[in-house]
Amino acid sequence: RGYLNRPELTEERFLNDPFYPGERMYQTGDIARWTEEGLVEWLGRSDGQVKVRGYRIEPGEIEAAIRRIDGIREAAVTARTEHGETALYAYIEGRESDDVRAELATRLPAYMMPAQFIEMSEWPVTPSGKLDRRALPAPGGAADRQAYTAPRNVTEMKLCALWEEVLKNGPVGIRDHFFERGGHSLKATALVSRIAKEFGVQVPLQDIFARPTVEELASVIQDLEESPYEAIQPAQTQDTYPVSSAQKRMYVLQQLEDGGVGYNMPAVLELTGPLDRVRLEETFRQLVERHESLRTSFETGPDGEPVQRIHDSVPFQLDEAESADAFVRPFCLEEAPLFRAALVKESDERHLLLTDM
User: Is residue 9 exposed (0-12), middle (13-18) or buried (19+ Cβ within 10 Å)?
Assistant: First the structure.
């Protein structure tokens, strides 16, 4: 698409000669093939790179970091996907898992931390003597958890309640492991925020990784100085509001491109079965009424700077469309909502719901 958006490269030229002379080329690591229909079919990657919660991660980098820890004799890191969520798992030999996790947290960013560390005494190997990653044992489930240990004081009681809110997996005992109970970096961040609101202290994110049980974290909280939690307050009501740097940049680009669809975010969903159009349209109206971002327009203020205006109410109508191609078109930033939806009727029992923002 990047080539086709360049005026000097026509589609015909791109298909005949996709390499632009004199420009830098990149090896993505993706493996693909041309199909007989002329499409590119993605087959996988030439390396072990995986995507975990939006981050592209090379498990080999984590393995190398683990092996640099004193006492580690062997290590392996794999990714597993369960219930639509991908997580990293580390297999180690030579040190206790809690010690490795604590030390690794000082060397790697939170999003690269494995969700669970499994201690190994024997490693599965292939007939050629190499590590058989596919034969590594699956992470332990509820059967491998420690026996429930009840909280002993108010701090531990509150922490257990916060863990259950974040993990949605209770009950939580004071010796349960945050990450072995399904925690990860995003949930750890949510836990830090809840702790700040409940206890009035700022727990560093790294402490969640280094002390991943309620018992350990309670001792950390007791030693921290109080830092009162301050909720973000709504801005005072006014006609217009300043824009962020990103909003300003997009507004200026939209003006230079005379509308354009470069920043449109369209989506298509297939609806099967009987459709209540009135109810669907009312659902969208309630969404627009509920969310200020869907009632916001942008304009140039008196001083020539972009501003945003939040409308008390804006009209919304579910449109009819002949096809998805005809549906995507430029938005007028001065007119809210900067969101539209339409239906393509293919039969009484099948519709396409088109959205764009």
Answer: middle
Query: pLDDT tens-digit profile of 251-289?
Result: 888 888 777 888 889 999 999 999 999 999 999 999 999
Residues 59 and 126 placed together within one structural domain of the fold: yes
- Reduced to 3 states (helix: H, G, I; strand: E, B; else coil), residue 342 is strand
Helices marked H in the chain? 11-16, 59-67, 97-104, 154-167, 185-199, 205-210, 214-223, 245-256, 277-290, 324-327
Domain that holds residue 181: 143-223
Cα 184 to Cα 164: distance, rounded to the nearest angstrom: 14
Q: State whether 215 and 174 are in the same domain.
A: yes
Strands 30-34 and 340-347: unpaired
Per-residue pLDDT reduced to its tens digit, 136-167: 888 765 434 567 788 889 999 999 999 999 98
The DSSP line for 178-237 is: TTTTT--HHHHHHHHHHHHHHHS----HHHHHHS-BHHHHHHHHHHSPP----PPPPPPP
The answer to whether the CB of 307 falls within 8 A of the CB of 301 is yes
The domain that holds 339 is classified in CATH as 3.30.559.10
Find, among 330, 289, 334, the residue nearest to 312 by Cα: 289
In a domain, 276, yes or no: yes
Residues 351, 253: one domain? yes
How many CB atoms neighbour CB 110 within 10 A?
16
192, HSE (Cβ side, Cα atoms, 13 Å): 16
Q: Among 107, 136, 165, identify where a domain stops.
A: 136
Supply angle C-alpha 96, 98, 100, rounded to 5: 70
User: Residue written as tokens 């640099």?
Assistant: 68
